[in-house]
Amino acid sequence: MFFLYNLVVQVASFLLKIVALFSAKIKLFVEGRKIVFPTLANEIKLTDKTIWFHAASLGEFEQGLPVIEKIKEKYPNHKIVVTFFSPSGYEVRKNSKVVDVIIYLPLDTKSNAQEFLKSVHPDLVFFIKYEYWPNYLNELKKQQIPVYLISGIFRENQVFFKWYGGFYRKALDTFEHFFVQNAKSKELLLKIGKTNVTVSGDTRFDRVASILEKDNSLDFISDFKNDTLTIVVGSSWPKDETLLVDFINSNNYNVKFIIAPHNIKEDQIQQLKNNISKKTVLFSEKEGKNLADFDVFIIDTIGILTKIYSYADIAYVGGGFGNPGVHNILEPATFGVPIVIGPNFTHFAEAIALVNMEGCVSISNQKELNEAFENLIQNEDIRYEKGHICSTFVQMNKNATETILKNLNTD
């Protein structure tokens, strides 16, 4: 089975190099991996002690951040190495000061795994949420390096729980312990004989709860808001924007909109701006303008959405009309903001919970979006009630990091 798996990885590697000629994102994926081993040679000495965290993408990095910060405190003499699989994680966080080395994870071949572990020689390894690379896990097991899964989540349709999933089930043998988000994940692991499991919860709650302790002020957002009821749209996609633009153009309420699209390509941003009939300004053109005069503020930059949510009276979180579904709703939730999302949210436990608790409203079409916004705009009490549900939900589910740290067998 390893032979077939390695063959597939080699074929995929070849195909990716071809696709990279036509795709900017895949080009980043391919080119970024060329500098991994030279970077490691420059950044890590044989005498260095290291701890390795792997995150598939940006969301998983943010999820693991509370644990990374605590591990740094516990092991101040270790270098923290973070690997990403996806460009959408690496490109955003490659200059982060939180960790010592940030790189792409080389593709999962036996030779890459051996060379990577020789270069990093970690004392501890943490995989965040998911991604189970058999060659890396096999080499880690051979070298008897402790490996932990944090904020893990398992579903019945995963290959581990199928009759033909023995190859991947064997990869799970590497893990010293599984820290999972919910009881269902533990139940599934127990069915395949994994008893080294703790339900710790989701470390994202710790991360978003800690946001409240930071300075989230942005003077230009305050100037734009100008004490006016404001709807913040985060991580929107074209399908979301089609519905949102219709509402923006047709409503007569005294309300402002801040839109932070998921993709900030110049042509897409300009098209979005052109589709809006109300007075609109881009982040990139805000200098020298009286922002209070505008109705819509489009954020064509990255890294400030979390702070912007602190100014929201209502939040719309995008992605709910695509796959796998809605983006992070916990960031607006921690600020006590009522949330509106699209229909595709069933892969996300926090979204399911908040929809069921009625802190979050799911919509499927223009009519439902209009009704949700109108209800929240017109009724301050409803806004407060739904927002309170959201903030309480975050506070009630934090402390996963503490549970993980207590149960690590690393001393």
Give the SSE map.
Elements: H1 2-19, H2 24-33, H3 36-43, E1 49-55, H4 58-74, E2 78-84, H5 87-93, E3 101-104, H6 110-120, E4 122-128, H7 134-142, E5 147-152, H8 166-171, E6 177-180, H9 183-191, E7 197-199, H10 204-211, H11 219-225, E8 229-236, H12 238-250, E9 255-261, H13 266-275, E10 280-282, E11 296-298, H14 305-309, E12 314-317, H15 330-334, E13 339-341, H16 349-357, E14 360-362, H17 366-378, H18 380-396, H19 400-407
Parallel strand pairs: 1-2, 1-4, 2-3, 4-5, 5-6, 6-7, 8-9, 8-12, 9-11, 10-11, 12-13, 13-14
Helix pairs in contact: 4-5, 4-10, 6-7
Task: Provide a descriptive summary of the structure in words.
- By secondary structure, the protein is α/β, with parallel strands linked by helices.
- The protein folds into 2 domains: 2-201, 3-Deoxy-D-manno-octulosonic-acid transferase, N-terminal domain (Rossmann fold, 3-Layer(aba) Sandwich), CATH 3.40.50.11720; 215-396, Rossmann fold, CATH 3.40.50.2000.
- Helices cover 46% and strands 17% of the residues.
- The protein has helices at 2-19, 24-33, 36-43, 58-74, 87-93, 110-120, 134-142, 166-171, 183-191, 204-211, 219-225, 238-250, 266-275, 305-309, 330-334, 349-357, 366-378, 380-396, 400-407, and strands at residues 49-55, 78-84, 101-104, 122-128, 147-152, 177-180, 197-199, 229-236, 255-261, 280-282, 296-298, 314-317, 339-341, 360-362.
- α4 (58-74) crosses α5 and α6 crosses α7.
- The mean pLDDT is 95.
